[in-house]
Amino acid sequence: MALFEIIKKDKSDDNLIWRYPNRSFNTNSQLIVHEGQEAVFYSNGKALDLFGPGKYTLETNNIPLLRKVINIPTGGKSPFQCEVYFVDKNEKTMRWGTKTRLEFLEPKYKFPISIGACGELRFTIEDARKILLKLVGVKENFDSESLDEFFDSQILMKVKNYIAQIITEQEISIFEIDQQLEKFSKDLQSKLEDDFKEFGIKLNKFFVTTIAKPVDDKQYLEFKELYFKQSVALAEAQLKQKIELIEEDTKAQKVVMASKAEATKRSQEGYTYQEEKAYGIGEKVAENQAVGQFTNVGVGLGMISGIGGPLSNQVSKEVSGAFASVDASNTCPNCHKEIELGSTFCKYCGTQLVTSKKCPKCGTDLPLDAVFCSKCGERVG
Known about the structure:
By secondary structure, the chain is an alpha+beta fold.
């Protein structure tokens, strides 16, 4: 029986797990494990001693599990037989895709639909012993083709179930799923992590890059058209609402700007808002040409008595002028020319201004040509 002195994997290939071709060694053999590798001694269906990167001389003290299983004596060069597997610990990337479509009920519009999916995943072997126990016996060397077969048989069916489960539970519309692929991928990864961990594999990333829709299905196309019509209507309504809000905001800003301008003007001219309002009332009073009209304004001199400073003087002048105008003149209702108060006839057009007279005794209104009062009999003519 030949005894081999050096155990290592030199060749570079795509094998995730590679079995060293010989099985006969002795306890002085050299084991070389490169970076990104682990070497596992395997015997009688058990994954035993494990070695990380480095160079080792095999001795009974550094292969205790193997020595116990196959009864390697201590001391000297002791021959033994076992299998040595090199496991690649570097991160691997692979593409995945559903080979058959998965069917479920579209959660928003409640119609049956079948879809496919594909993407990419990244992983590393976390537990070399566990993956050996799960996969050794299937193939001696576990290359990329074996990895695809493993994924199809052990994982892909669960991927399909999880896709349908997440879409249904989260009520993701088939017409909106493309906008949610990032979150959708993370949710799928979360569900798959334990399934990979069962084989000693750590799932680092899981991406869904494409959801294949049934573009030839008539029912799918009808609901797709309905969905986009609703989306357009909703977008138009939201846009209209935003425009209305902008217009209202613009109006409000204009009012605020106008108010600020008025406040600045008052400050520069030295009066307050209350004084301005009172001054406005004074101007309105001054414009009236009769005492009766003045009282109809609904204010008295007491309302503007609180005005101070220049505005008080101005209001006083305006009101005094109004009363002076009322006392000094009267207006003919025919020619509208000013005539003296107390005139019976207009001196310009001859229109009779006084149309009645009062009884000197009882004050009853009487026609101008009356001789006696119709109420008390007093002579008036």
